[in-house]
Amino acid sequence: MNKARPADIAFNAINYTVFGLIMFLSLYPFYYIFIYSISDSVQAIKGITFYPRGFTLDNYVGIFQQEGIPRAAMISVLRTVTGTMLTVFCSSFFGYLMTKQKMYFRKIIYRFMVITMYISAGLIPWYLTMRMYGFNNNFLVYIMPGALNAFHVILIKTFIEQLPASLEEAAIVDGAGTLMIFTRVIFPLSMPIIATISVFTAVGQWNSWFDNLIFMVGRPDYNTLQIILYNLLRRAGTISSNIDMTSAEQMAKRITPDSIRMTITMVVTFPILFVYPFAQKYFVKGIMIGAIKG
Q1: What pTM was estimated for this model as a whole?
Q2: Contact status, residue 97 vs residue 155, Cβ threshold 8 Å
């Protein structure tokens, strides 16, 4: 076995050090927010570095005691799940249709779709269009406008074009129709790219709040968790003084505005983090395969 040369050892040491430092700088801000959110508010003011001060979950209890949080969380989960499913199905099926040479006006439709990625009508035309469709104060405004995503269609179309054509031909010989071929053959084989766009869509749906702000003025019961927490974040100072404290010991542990901000950040971030472990094995593969062709 060849011994490592001093130059190689030095290079590896520098390489690990540099990338280790980059990883630390990337992860530490999130870690800091987490340990601050589970620290006693009064002790946290004195400073936190690598471990929480006075472990407590009072910050989270105080946040979830706020009016409207449970229902808003349910609405956010509902829009994320239904919106992701609808976008994945519509974008994947449309991408599959774009691979069919016999489809009429296929190239014109595809190019028109690509143009929409570069040209936007603006906020006012978008608002007027949604109002014309009757989406004001309607849950459908959360999921219908994003049912077809041009970027996702491009990824899926590129991926499907790399699948063996003989699989689809065999299904046609067995008498399968277009929808049957897509659901039974194409869709299962496209799981890497499907998982990729599912993550993209779920993150976008979970983090979205602007459509709630614009279209749900008359339906506060349809407010999502993001808009509720955004409003709480703006009122962090008053919330910290209004959270119910029932004893002298609890009064000494009053939640501070900084604790409110850190806790809200974690509440928003935690749920979407659980999506990545389940899709990780598909994520990189789907992106790389979908990017081989233009």
Answers
A1: 0.76
A2: no
